[in-house]
Every structure is written in C-alpha cells, then in structure tokens.
Design brief:
Chains A, B, C, D: Pfam families: GFO_IDH_MocA, GFO_IDH_MocA_C3. By secondary structure, chain A is an alpha/beta fold. In chain A, 32% of the residues lie in helices and 24% in strands. Chain A starts with 5 loop residues before the first helix and ends with a strand.
Chain lengths: 385, 385, 385, 385
C-alpha cells in the first residue's frame, strides 16, 4: 500500500477484515506500507498491521514478493505510481479520483489496457458501489423494476468547510487536489449515478464556485496540524459544484435528465451522498448517512398501496450480506472496503478485469472535465470526452 | 370570484373559513361566482356557498356591491381580467402564476401601481408563503439564525404525468398554460426560495425538457373528462425544468448558489415542494408533504449537540397558529388559503399594499422567462429581467 | 350543538365544511349553539356561524325545528343531555368519552337502543377513526393483508402537563373529567386499536400514576385563564396510564397482545397517537402527528424487497379523499370532523345506526374501568365489563 | 475465547480491530479458540485469526500464557466456565445474559467479587452500552439535560420467529436458553434503559407469552441446519414479553414509569432496540436500526424552536469516535465490540473494575426473574431481587 492518510486506514481495514468473513480464493498478506516519511510510515505500518514499512515506492513495486499495489496517495501522484506498478506487472487498486487530470487518467487507462493484455489487473476505488444498498439498487434497475429512467438526482453534501476561518489544506490547492468538491466528492456522485442506472453521462452544463476564497495559512506548512498563521492563502478550487447532465439514451428512448451537486458547505450534512432515480415504473432513493437503507417505490402496485418503502438492506439475500451479521445488524462505512477487496482478489484470481476499471475512472474524469469547461464557458452544454 | 376549477374550491374554502377562526377587520361576503358556463357556475356557487352565479365577468367587475375580485382562471386570462378589475377600482387577488408571459405580467404590474395610487389593492396568490412552517422559516432567516446564505435548493416534484399514456390537458398546451412544470410549480419553488431567504434570483442557467412529447387526445375537446381518442396531440410545454441560479449578494457578501427543479415525473413524489437553505450559522429544510414540520439546524450549538431538529410548527406562538387548534394538531393544504384571506383583507382595510404584490409576481415571471431563454441558448447564464 | 369549548370549534368546522365538499343526502343547518353563559354562547354562535344562541339545552331539545343534537360539553354532563335528547326523539352525536363512568355509559347505551327502535340515531365521536389513513388501515386488516394479529401497540402521547408549575384545570379534577390521560386520550388509543384490528380488548393489566400531584390554583376559579394563586390544589386524576391487554382471539387463533400508553408527560410529543400492529403477513404503523401517512409492511414480498412503506393516504381512491384535493395535498386535524358529519348524516338519512355506537363507547368505558380496577389491584389481570 | 457461534465472530472482530484504531495500554493477542467440536473450532480459529484451537476449556483456563477468558457460549454454561476461570485468576469477559438463572448469576457475582479482591477483573457484555449514541445519551442524562426522568420506554423488537413453521432451535428451549425473548433481547432493553437513565428498576408487572407453541423439529438434532422433520416440538420459552416497571426514585423525587417490550414477532422490525426517555427538561430517543443517530429534545429552548433533533453521533468529540472516521461516516453493529475491548483492556491494565460488572448482570437477571414471577402471578407488581 502506497500512502497512509485517512484512506490508508480504510483500505487497511478492508484487507484486514475481508478474509475473516468472506471466503477468498487467495489470502492477502499485508506486506509493505510505503510512505515518504519513513518514521511515520513505520508507525502506520505498526498501527495498521502491515509487516513492514518502506519509503521508496519505486523499489517496492519491483519486489518479487509483491503482487498487488494499493494506491491511497493524493490524486497528483496516482498516475506515476499506477503506471509504473502496472508496467512492473503488479495488479493495482487505485483510490478515486483516478487522477487529477484527463491527461493523466488517459495514460493510466492505456497502461491498464496494456497490463490487462498480460493478465495484470487494475481497479479504481469507487467504494460506494459496494455499499449493499447501492449494489442492490443497481440490481433493481437492471431487473427493469424502475422501467425507463427519466430523472436522476445525485448530490454529495458535506459541511466541513463552512467555517470561513477554517485553515487551508492540500485539498484546497489545485496543484495537489486537482479540483475541490467536484473531484473529491462529485466524482462519487457521478460514478454512483452511472453505476446504479447503468447509463453514462454524455453532456453537462454546470457551475463551479468558491465560496470562501481566502483561508488562514498554517505556520508550519500547509496541513491539518501545525501552528495557525495570520497569513491567508488563496483557495483555487471549487467549494461547490452544481451541474445538470444528460445520460445516453437507450435505443429509441429518452435521454435521462441528471441533476448533480457536490458541496462542502451544506450546513448540517456531514457525509450525505444522496441519489434519487425516477423511472416509468418505480423510483429509488438512497442516502449514505443511512447507508443500510434503500427507499424503493413500486409504481406498479395499486395506487392506494404505493409508497416509498424503507428496505433495510441487511438480509442475507442482499448483496455482500450473507457472511456478516443477522438481519437488522448494521454495517458501517468501512465495510465497502472489505467488499472491494473481495471483488478485487476474486477478479485477479479468476483472471478477469475487476470493475470499476481505469476506463470507468477515466470516464468520470471526462465528466468532471466537461463540468469545468462548461463552468468556464458560461454554463453551456458541453460534451463529455 | 372569477373561475371555478380546483383553485376555486381552495379559494372558496379560504373565504369561508378564515372569518370563523380569525378576527378580521371586515367580514367578507361570498357574493358572486363567475364562470363562462352559466349552469356549471351556478352549480359551483351552490356547492361552495356563493350567493349567486354569473357568466359575464365584465359586468360583475362594474357592480357597486362588489369590492374584491378573486381570479382563479387559467393563466391566459389573468391579465385581461385583473387589469379591468383594477381599473374598475376593485381590489384584486390573483392566483399564480401572475400571467403566462412577461408582457402580460408587466401590464398587470403597471395596472396595480396605478390602482395602488388610488388605494386599490392587489395581491398574487403564492399561498405557500402562508404555510406556518415557511413563514416561520423566513423569520428564522430574517433573525439571522442562518447567518450568510450560501446555498439554496428548491424543488417542486409531482408525478401525475409519469404515465406516458395519460391524456392531453390544457396544462400541457403552451397557448393555454404558458409553460409546463416551470410556470405551474416551478414558480412556487422560485417564489418560496426568495421569500424564505429574502434574496432575489439575478441570473439563471437552465434546461427545459419534454419527456413525453405526444399524448392521446380526448374525443370531446381537451380536458380531464371526455371520451378517449386514438389521436395524439403534441405536448409543447416542459415536463421537467432544472436550473441553477445566483441570488443577489448582500453588500460585501456572497451571491448564494441556487439549484431548482420542477417536474411532474418524479415517481412517488405527489406534491413535494422541498427547500433547503444552507447558511454560515445554520440550515433549514422543508417539505410540503410534511407541511407542519420545519427542519432547523443550529450550527452555533456545541458540535456534539448539532442536528436537524424537526420543529412541529403548531405552537400558538408560531405564525398564524394561535386561532387554530392546540399544539400538535395538524393543519392541511387549504389552511394557507385562509391565511391569505386574513392578510389580504387586513391589508385592504389598513390601506397598505398586501404581499406578494403584482411586482413580486412579475419578478417571478422574469425568472421563469430567463430560464426559458437560457434553455433556448444552450444553458448559458442569462440575466433575470 | 351543546357546548362551545375547543371541541365546539372542531364540530362547527365539520358541520360548516362537510356539505361544501361532499354530496350529503340532506343539508345540515347550523341552527342553535347552547351554552350556560348566554353572552359567551352568543359570541361563539356569531363566530362559528350558528343561526342563534341559547342557554337552556332542555328547551332546545324539545324544539320541533331541531333534528340533531351535537354534544361537546365536558364528560360529566354527557349522560344527562344525551339521554334527554334521545328520549325527545333527537338524533345525537356525542363527543368522546361517552361518559365519565360505566354507569352513565350504560344508561346512555340503553337510551340509544330505546331510541334506535324508533329510528332515532346516535353516535359517539371517536373522530380518529375517520382520518383516511386509519380508515384505510382498517381496510387492510379486514382484507387479510396482515394475516393473524399477534401484537398491537397503541399510545397517545402529549406533553402539555410536563411543567410541574402548570395550573390546575377541570381536566385534572376527577369529578369533572372522570379520569386524566386515561379517559381523555387513552380512550382514543383503545378505540383506534380496536377499530383498526376489528378485535375487542377482553382483559387488562395496568398502572395509573399521577406524576405531579399538586398544582397552583388559579385565583378566579379553576380554568385556563384567571389570576394565578399561591394555593395549590390536588390533582386526583392520572397523568400517565400504561397497560397491557389481551384481545378476543379469533376462533382457534391467538389472543393478540396489546400494549397501551396514555400520557401528558411525553416530552416533545405534542399530539402523537401512534399505533403499530404486527400480523403474520404484515404490519402497520400510524402516527397522528403525520396523519396523512400510513406505514405498511408486506411480509409476503420477497425478503429483499420488504420494508415499511410510507403510503401518502391522499389518493382519490383512499377513504374520504375523492372530494378533497389532488394527491399529495395534505389534510389536517379537522377534516375528520367533516367525515364524521358525512357518515352521521348519511346514516340518519339511510335509517341505519351510525358507527361508532353508544355501545362501542360503553365498551371503551368498560376497558378504561378495568384498567382502573387493575391499577387499584396491584396490576392484576382484570376482565373488561 | 470459549465458544464460536455468531457472538464468536463479533467478539473476534472486536479483538482484531480495536488495537488498529485505539491506543490500548496492552496489545491483546488472539491466542486460543475453544470449542467442543475440535474440527469446527479449528476451522473457526483459522477463519477468525486465532493462533490455535482447543476443545477442553478446563485446560485452557489453566494455561500460564492466557490472561483473559472471553466467554461466548450459550447461557447455560456461562456460570461454570466463568467461575472456574475467575478462580484460576483469569480476567473474564462474559456475553450477556450473565446466566440463565438468578442462582447461577449470584454465584458468578460472588466469584467476581472474590476475584476482584485479587485484582482479577470481570465484565458482562452488554455491548449496546458502547454504541456511541447510547453512551452519549447517558452523558446527556448525567449532565442533567433531561431534568427529572418521568417515563422510560424500552423495546427490543425482532421478527425472525414470525413464521409459525420456522424450526425449533436451542434458543426456543428453556433448558438451553433460560428464557426466550425476555432473556435474549429483553435483557438488553432493561440494561440499556438503566444505563442511560442511571436508575435501577425496582419492581415490575408483566406478561410472558408464547405465540407459536409448537414448531417443526429438525431431523438431525436441534439446530439451524439439518433436515426438516415432520415432528413438532414444544416451545417452552416466551415469544413476547411486555412489562411495566418502576425505577428507584431519586431522593424526594418521582419513581419513573417504565414500559418494556421484547419480541421476536414484531413484523418488519429486524433488530430494533428503541428507547425513549421523557424528562422534565428534555427527552431522548434512540433506535438501534439507526445506531449512528440520537434524537434529542431540549425543552428549555423557546417553544417555537423545540423539536426532536437528529444528532449524527459521529463527531470526533462524541464517545469512542475520535479514532474512527471523519464526521458523517457511519459505524456499524460490530464497532461496539471494539469499544468493549478497549474499555475492558484499559480497566484490566488500570487495575479497576470494568463496567458493566457481574453485579450489574446479576441485577438484570433479577429484573428478568421478577418479570417471570409477575407473569406467573397474574401480572401483579413484583419486587426485583
């Protein structure tokens, strides 16, 4: 695993826990944790149970005893590491967003295709596809239970930037983070909308906006710790992204209308990734803040009996659920990371390409790029890719 | 009262009930109900308790024993009737939308200003301002409880058109209805967002879309009753409107970002007018399907105690509530029409201009017009008015 | 109408509004409002639109131009008035609880049966049976959608007594009110549970408790207005009632287990009458604070698709709904009183006994009495009646 | 760890994960898993990551390299194992219920006290105390935010027995399970109510009922797997328990009224442990099916602003939360087991008695016993202990 921030903890929990509940075709070993700061990397390795720590990822990706590289660094280093690892014949799991730019994402996709030809696998970490409720939502759509999709609303709302005196962090700097709420959380909203509906966004019209344009610098470099400084730095990424989209129409059908929002200023919404899909036969609604629940509306029932139904997606027949707890026992945020490990390891062993692929990650990057271009072009409808 | 559709029943209930609970400065008398079809008008007058029926509104507006004209006809006749009534010295209450076009709305606003100079009053019927929860929401914002407004989301979602074989009605014809979901229900979303925040939308970027473009004609004219026909007619109004907006920035402040939706294809949403406002100190959320409740988030509380609070807006200290029932006894849809009567009659007696004015109605019309123009111009940002 | 408290306003609204929406077989005329205080009665009659006021109910019940007596006085006068009115050949609608004691209720039931033999009708005002969601709940049970009923939970929770310094009122005096929360609101919980399930409570085990035993007297008599006094009076009715019950078993079946609560100390619950019914095939849940909604759980669906479904009971196919507003437009507290008028007038015209009958009211009185006896007997199971 | 059923998986996850997020004063090693069936025990040990397996717990508790015994067997063996382990000087964590009878629980409590005198620690596994929302609820009560407690309602509702043709299992046999829903889940409801309020139940009045009295035996022994048999066995434990309780009154204060329910027939409720506490200054409500949320009602706010507030108990300032994820990232069922490990290991290292103690477990057993005695005595109020 390369990297050891918040995502490192989540991925580690996935590797640690998955084999204890699921029957995997191979037992993953938590071999090496890599971080630039050797001391911090060692501390993280000890804490999270990795066998050893290292500070040079280039060396690690050449080691014969390493099969999989799991990348959890900030987005600006994804391309370099992932391409090198794939070229070195290592299977790669890469956190989202795939990259900070379309160019990097393209290069990564190409590397993934080259590698796949040699049986080397890659996956991008849109973990929210692996919340049982969202996986089940996709099944309902795929089974035709919603009929023709007419409208999709997807929003990822947080509020951790709402304090205008909150400090600068790398996530607010374009050169590190690529974009703001759009790439960080909007990417999830786009991917989840496409995953559940099985439809791709083709064009967008949108707005990126920075609400708080200057924030206090921290005395000791930019970061979440360090001494507060009286100086202020410029936030050059978006705080809020709102955009409309049109999905590819099924043959002879309607091009569904999408509404998207990504924000870190939604007061009171902590980690609310919501999606609502309206179809000709039914509807679905999901909120990540109640991740064990799926709202399903079946419009084929008698009119007196229709209503949004809160399905507790905790039955053993629901996706991923059987190895966990009895019905009604809740899963949490990190369970998706175990499911991701299950699917990745299974695909690698089965010699098939895991999903979502780097190509899927590239597509999302194209959507985000089109939103940025539309925002720069007075909101005009802009084609994806 | 001119007109006797669904809105006629609602306005009649307002006139009938308001004086039984509120202390009005004058007792309204339900004098004449006017409808083109004399027989139907008489039946409605009998049913709803109007003293008499008439078929010629031009005659009625000249009668000396008539003080107030209440207009509940489709939007295409609002301008003609309202202007004539105002010019005849009658106080006018006019259902929303004020008119089908900006031109008509402008003429009505001018007539209203001319009339006001002579002490003749006018009001447009954005009744949802008079749901106690929305009135209270505005008070919270006005009291500074939300701080600076950063984002506003307003959506009006219904699903009564979701059946692609549902028949044509006048609401789906541009020459009668002016627009589709945009003017019919989007107007409410815009007005309510502006009312609660106290901010006006200045520019918009949007999309109008017709999902079902052809529908069965009814054998006997266009209407909700009549024999079904095998012919199909063209729907030339929008089924769905999605648009972004920017609100006028307070001095030195931020221009709040708005997201709007109006749709009659939101499967499972029957009459869901939702609004969520995010501010620097708090947030509000409201849903017309739970109209006695207001969600309030106070971000000034200790972090461990913050949460969206479901306020039952049924306390005697809440707006409009004291004359009704004890706390916890629910109000319904039609109570807003009683509150509208109270405010209108009180303003007329006090010799002040009631709110919302025809000028407010014109402004909303400008917003809707800008959305239409933006939609026609590839979604480009378009100024209001 | 005899009486003019809070219930007088509600019943007046029922008489006033019902004929404006429903097609009644006869047009009720709001003839006389009777109150001991002539001046107050006249004011109420003027306010609520009764043709005249009177202060002597005995005289009014003999008038030839009066067909119906509607009793909305406190419970201690129900028996005398109702029996006299029935014996005088007037149809009687009587607010719940039917009476303050079983003895009175028995005499009323007997009078009702005598009267019925002569075509004179009577009904007791358990209005919450006429909330469309509860009526629909009963239909679902009657249609077998819940299967065998195993458990019923009914609670009526308010909090208006939670302030220990709140004043004495007649509702806290046994000689006026008969009992406290048990008779005032527990009666509704019992009646609604029985109405929805179609099953009668046969025995109970319960507890009555007074939480605040002394309260400030008001200087000018006992009432909600008047000068506060330094003296305190003794509350001799229950603040809280909690009891279990067993319902009559269907043949060869199970005697469903009931749990009941009535309280005026449920902090934050304003008017929350909740009921949840668990059956072998499904479940229902209702809360009067969201009275347009019914939760329905269909356990015959595939396990992955089961969930509590929030049915908006506002479709024209739902009970009582067709004459009101389009789907999704909410009804409020007072609509039940219109429905009550519809059913009462219809039954009177059709020459059938309206429901709930005085006998139903007597039965509820028996249940309350059994709870009181059980509470006095250390909670022992006590037979109803 | 002795035992390897469902609880074995949960406890294993606790031991495995706790040190990866929390800073423990000592690193627990997952040494030996003990099960009567050697092969199955070995499989479980491999799966869950225990170093070795064993089949003789008596031998294991004497091993010098073992410091802690974690008991997750059915209740009928708790006493024997726990007493032996404590006497052997091992710290003991024991799943709830502490025992199947008061007698056993008494012996265990005595053994725990003997052991404590020698610095040997013991704890009973009421894990739901360690859901952050319930721990925080207790803090709010302890801080006086609810004022005087007037009413407590606690219910644990499941529905996994609702199918009358579901098979017999050991949980339905009195000699194995001690009791039915009462001991299995009612114990949690009692403990959580007492934990949050800080008050003990002193007397109870209750009912135990078996709804389905005969169930199909399984051909191959009694268990959840095996061939179905045509024979039926008798269920001799309760399916449903409903009871009232009175809590110990604070000095000069009120003895709060409790309402309790434990059922496995609550159609649609999968694992719903709900508690609502009404106090003179506020109220709390919790549902285990939404375990990251706590509803808090602050009655000291202005009346217009009161409402149940949904606190997402995921802030770093909330109990147990800091080492986990950012705000709004959900915890699941098993996190309580990690928290239990943290508290247990910390107490052992600090040389203090962990909580809840065996004495707390004994107390709950006394409450359950009193409910049983009351049920056998026609529901009469029965003292606890």
């Amino acid at each position: 695993m390369i990297g050891y921030g918040f995502m490192g903890a989540a991925h580690s929990q996935g590797w640690r826990v998955a084999p204890r509940f699921f029957d995997l075709p191979a037992q993953p070993e938590m071999a090496v944790l890599v971080g630039r700061n050797a001391q911090a990397a060692q501390a993280a390795a000890d804490k999270w149970g990795w066998n050893e720590a290292a500070s040079d990822w280039r060396e690690v990706i050449t080691r014969d005893d390493i099969d999989i590289i799991d990348i959890v660094t900030p987005g600006d280093s994804h391309a370099e590491i992932a391409i090198a690892a794939l070229d070195a014949g290592k299977h790669v799991m890469c956190e989202k967003p795939l990259a900070n730019t379309v160019e990097e994402a393209l290069a990564m996709r190409d590397a993934a295709e080259r590698a796949a030809a040699k049986g080397v696998r890659s996956m991008v970490g849109f973990t929210y596809r692996r919340v049982p409720a969202t996986t089940f939502a996709r099944q309902l759509v795929a089974d035709g239970r919603l009929g023709d999709i007419r409208q999709v609303r997807a929003a990822y709302r947080q509020d951790w930037l709402m304090d205008a005196d909150g400090p600068m962090t790398w996530r607010l700097q374009k050169d590190r983070a690529g974009s703001g709420s759009l790439g960080d959380i909007g990417a999830h909203a786009v991917d989840l909308a496409e995953y559940i509906t099985g439809l791709n966004v083709e064009k967008v019209s949108g707005l990126l906006e920075t609400i708080v344009t200057e924030r206090p610098l921290l005395g000791e470099g930019i970061g979440l710790s360090g001494t507060a400084s009286t100086e202020r730095g410029t936030v050059d990424v978006d705080d809020v992204a709102v955009f409309s989209g049109r999905f590819a129409a099924p043959e002879g059908g309607f091009s569904a209308v999408g509404s998207f929002e990504a924000t870190r200023f939604a007061t009171g919404r902590k980690n609310s990734l919501t999606i609502e899909v309206s179809g000709s036969l039914g509807a679905l609604a999901f909120d990540l803040e109640r991740l064990n629940e799926l709202e399903f509306y079946d419009a084929t029932l008698p009119s007196t009996e229709q209503g949004f139904r809160t399905i507790l997606v905790t039955e053993s027949e629901h996706p991923y659920l059987a190895p966990w707890w009895p019905a009604g026992h809740m899963l949490g945020y990190e369970h998706g990371f175990s499911h991701q490990v299950v699917d990745f390891v299974t695909a690698v062993r089965d010699g098939v390409s895991p999903s979502p692929s780097f190509d899927d990650g590239l597509h999302v990057q194209h959507v985000l790029d089109a939103v940025t271009r539309s925002s720069d072009d007075s909101g005009r409808w802009t084609s994806v890719g």
